[in-house]
Amino acid sequence: MTETIQKRINDSKAMRWTALILIALMMFFGYMFVDVMSPLQSLVEQERGWSPSVFGTYAASEYLLNVFGFLIIAGVILDKCGIRFTGELSASMMFIGAAIKFYAVSDWFPGTGLATWLDSWWITMPASAKLASFGFMIFGCGCEMAGTTVSKAIAKWFKGKEMALAMGLEMAIARVGVFAIFSISPILAEKMGSIAAPVGFCTALVFIGLITYTVFTFMDRKLDAQLGADGSNETSDEEFKVADLKNILTSQIFWVVALLCVLYYSAIFPFQRYGANMLQCNLDGISPAAASNIFRWFPIGAAVITPFLGSFLDHKGKGATMLMWGAILLIACHLIFAFVLPATHSHVIAYSTIVLLGISFALVPAALWPSVPKIIDEKVLGSAYCLIFWVQNIGLCFVPMLIGSVLASSNANNPAVIAAKEAGDEFIPYNYTMPLVIFACFGVAALILAIYLKAIDRKNHFGLEEPNIKA
Ligand SMILES: NCCCC[C@H](N)C(=O)NCC(=O)O
Prior knowledge:
CATH class of the largest domain: Mainly Alpha
Distance between the termini: 29 Å
Bound molecules: the ligand NCCCC[C@H](N)C(=O)NCC(=O)O
């Protein structure tokens, strides 16, 4: 009897990479929306009266609902309802949140009954900021849930294939989105004479992301038909039960990975918010544009290198070792920024350290996310990703506030800062040593966890050092 081996849709290189592009586009547009207002801080202050602390509250709102438990629910939804439903839900939440934020910063909002009511309480926070934060909170829930859904979708479509390369490419595409919006947003705002223009533009892009993900769901339906699954819990024979969460939460290796993740990312994304200003302060007050020009090599450097490291991981392995090197580079870079740059004011050192940090930012994500399917049972993979993001979001929500207050308190008696404030200067030459030392300490803790992770992997054979593609 001859047995025909049926080829699945994801066995075709063209089809699985098309699927990756479709889902990565949703994240690309999502990451663009996240940072659309980051380069417009002073403009938002002028146009809408958002003080720096209002801006900080607005930025934290992205993570607020996630921290208060939404991401845990998101994990259950993902494992119970599957990647198609959860992806559509995430993309829709991203669009609804984006549309609310667009309305909040548009010229249609001031003067409405809602604006008058929102202005009547917590008066230091303008109505536009309150509504924009509400929208951003809904968007943030959708965006983080989308991030975990995309990881689970890639693990499904690329299992035993180029999984790490695919995850690396997806993250690289998202980072190009950050780079792109940092360049486009100020131009759009200036040309259209309003901050609402770039926000509206990105809201439209988020809608396109919803469409591209919808196209992907048709492909995924076909894959499920070939796998013989019903699509609710596509990759596993056993049904997901909420009680399975207990297995994740009591797993030692899960906590090592989750803590490593929060510590590492707490020294990356919050640093991203202060990085350009830190360079300005340490390079004799260069212009904000010149500082951004140096700083943008950080996400773009990571975007270029991540896919190569992903491919290396697929073919050669060494995931745990890559995590260790990522943490070592992180520590070295923050210490150079803290002690060497203020002493030398060297542009060469600034550029090289930014590039080194970009390599670190490629090493850790490229190794971390593809390692999760190796340590966690497939049927609870969605919940595991969501729980890791949940722990990470706690750091991303609170560390910027910690850094902001340390920066303020460590400069309270700084004569240069006092003089600049008294003179009403636009540029305040802050000393960033203390915040940078805190970032380096996060790196040291992440390194200890990476070493421990490598040790427990060696003992328990999780395969973190093994390649994904077995010859
Ligand atoms: N403001 C963007 C934060 C994205 C956080 C997200 N949970 C994440 O870790 N994504 C993976 C990455 O490396 O970007």
